[in-house]
Amino acid sequence: MEIPKYTRSQLALRNGQDKPEIWVAYKGRIYDVTESRLWRKGQHYEHWAGQDLTKELSDAPHTEKVFEKFEVVGTL
Q1: What is the rounded distance in angstroms from the CA atom of residue 59 to the CA atom of residue 52?
Q2: Do 19 and 66 touch, CB atoms closer than 8 A?
Q3: How far, in Å, are 13, 19, 53, 59, 60 from residue 66 at the CA level?
Q4: 19: domain range?
Q5: Does a structural domain hold residue 3?
Q6: Considering its fold, how many domains does the chain have in total?
């Protein structure tokens, strides 16, 4: 099965407010973080869902391994 490709505009709608899904992108992959209690209402600390977080991860207290527990739902 091929993974769907989404635009930045489509990703932006998955911010936990415009649509029920909460998605974030990292290194070209889009992850569904809807079930994570840390992303309730589409915000995780100073980060907002519906965005590409690739550049922001360097400021995080965790590594990119955190994305391994989330499903990849598409590519950016």
Answers
A1: 14
A2: no
A3: 23, 23, 12, 14, 11
A4: 8-75
A5: no
A6: 1
CB 33 within 8 A of CB 67: no
Question: For position 14, which CATH number holds?
Answer: 3.10.120.10
What tens digit of pLDDT does each residue of 20-75 get? 999 999 999 999 999 999 998 899 998 999 999 999 888 788 888 999 999 999 99
Q: What is the pTM of this model?
A: 0.92
CB 69 within 8 A of CB 1: no
pLDDT at 16: 94
* Cα 25 to Cα 45: distance, rounded to the nearest angstrom: 16
Closest CA to 3 of 20, 19, 23, 15: 23
Residue 24 bridge partners (DSSP):
31
Strand partners, 74: 30
